[in-house]
Amino acid sequence: MKVFKYFFTVPLLAFFSLNTYGQGLSNSHHDFTGAAWSGNEACKPCHTPHNANMEVPNSPLWNHQVTNASFQVYSSSTLNSFPSQPAGHSKLCFSCHDGTVAVENHSGNTDGTRYVSFGNLTTDLRDDHPISFEYSTTLATVDGGLHDPKITPSGLGGTIEEDLLENGYMQCTSCHDVHIGRNTQGCTGCHQVGGGGGMTTVSLSIWKSNQGSALCLTCHNK
Ligand code: HEC
Ligand code: HEC
Ligand code: HEC
Ligand code: HEC
Ligand code: HEC
Question: Which SS3 state, helix, strand or coil, does residue 165 take?
Answer without folding.
Answer: coil
